[in-house]
Amino acid sequence: MELSKRFNKQLDKIEISLIRQFDQSISDIPGILRLTLGEPDFPTPEHVKEAAKRAIDENKSYYTGMSGLLELRQAASRFVKDKYGLSYHPENEILVTIGATEALSATLSAILEEGDVVLLPAPAYPGYEPIVTLMGAEIVEIDTTANHFILTPDMLEQAILEQGDKLKAVILNYPANPTGVTYSREQMAAFAEVLKKYDIFVICDEVYSELTYTEEGHTSLAEFLREQTIVINGLSKSHAMTGWRLGFIFAPQIFTAQIIKSHQYLVTAANTMAQYAGIEALTVGHNDAEPMKVEYIKRRDYIIEKMTALGFTIIKPDGAFYIFAKIPQGYTQDSFAFLQDFAREKAVAFIPGAAFGEYGEGYVRLSYAASMDTIQEALERLKDYMNL
């Protein structure tokens, strides 16, 4: 028997993430400093942890309904209403998921069919394409490198027209991983004017919404285009709860009625104790991201100052916790090779830009979700490596 040849053929099109490949290639370096993780270095707030402990002590350890605890969905509904002006009914327009990743998987598996096309501004987080590929669909990237990583309505409309009837959805991630780019209310309204002309889904990954650094704050496309938009969010970044795995889908009832089918058979329901912690996070911890934002901004500005002085080109990010820096001329533009050599010489790890697709090559991504001491030491070693 040769069962190895009977797997889903779409798996042949999927590779292990280049992020993981790079991490593995340098994993033997002792004492390496890592500015790689998309994970807050802050602990989960104490009051959130206590809420989970109470749930355990009170034996709240049974399945919830597939949509998640109603009390949590009510808290989520109030949170997005207060923060972003969005209105979603907790009874039938909000689903609780196992992180934003499962929210994306459930959404895309409910929407996509073989031969469909999904548009994605690039460079982009590498987690979207494998899900789309498994569905037999295809990602088509929109190159934003010539416009400082900013998508424009004209670029979006041109890409939509080029794909024609094959186009099923657009994925918008803002603030964006890896670039930190986000969009103003005016820009969102302009995107909505384009998208409303076409019969396509718009999937908005807004998991970094609470880490938006502009004075205006975060604006969701759903404010302007509710009837086409599926909003993905979660508590990993806003409340330093990556390991708790709590995400949300916000969408019109006609969408959630279908998405819950794929969600049900993927996972049944999210972790019950984590859901009770989520209620605490979204109510008592309504503004738990604010102290983190203050520190992230300090770290961001420090890195930009130091790396710019070393010759890197950086577009100042307005959200998330990443710096996406262009490697200076005179060094290899192969980001994987550049960072492997840097890691071997100075025991510091960044992420190669190539991990974020062809339009990320020539760049490196640093996460400033690391202590200032770690960041300062890493940049001193970078300065030494570049002989400056």
Automatic annotation (TrEMBL):
Family: Belongs to the class-I pyridoxal-phosphate-dependent aminotransferase family.
Stretches that traverse the bilayer: none
EC number: 2.6.1.-
Pfam family, one: Aminotran_1_2
Coiled-coil spans in chain: none
Keywords (A to Z) from UniProt: Aminotransferase, Pyridoxal phosphate, Transferase
Source organism, top-level taxon: Bacteria
The Aminotransferase class I/classII large domain, residue ranges: 32-382
GO molecular function terms attached to this record: pyridoxal phosphate binding; transaminase activity
Protein name, UniProt field: Aminotransferase
Species whose genome carries this gene: Streptococcus himalayensis
Lineage: Bacteria, Bacillati, Bacillota, Bacilli, Lactobacillales
GO biological process, one term: amino acid metabolic process
Cofactor: pyridoxal 5'-phosphate
Gene encoding the protein: aspC
Top-tier EC class: transferase
Listed CDD domains: AAT_like (cd00609)
Cross-referenced InterPro entries: Aminotransferase_I/II_large, AspAT/PAT-like, NHTrfase_class1_PyrdxlP-BS, PyrdxlP-dep_Trfase, PyrdxlP-dep_Trfase_major, PyrdxlP-dep_Trfase_small
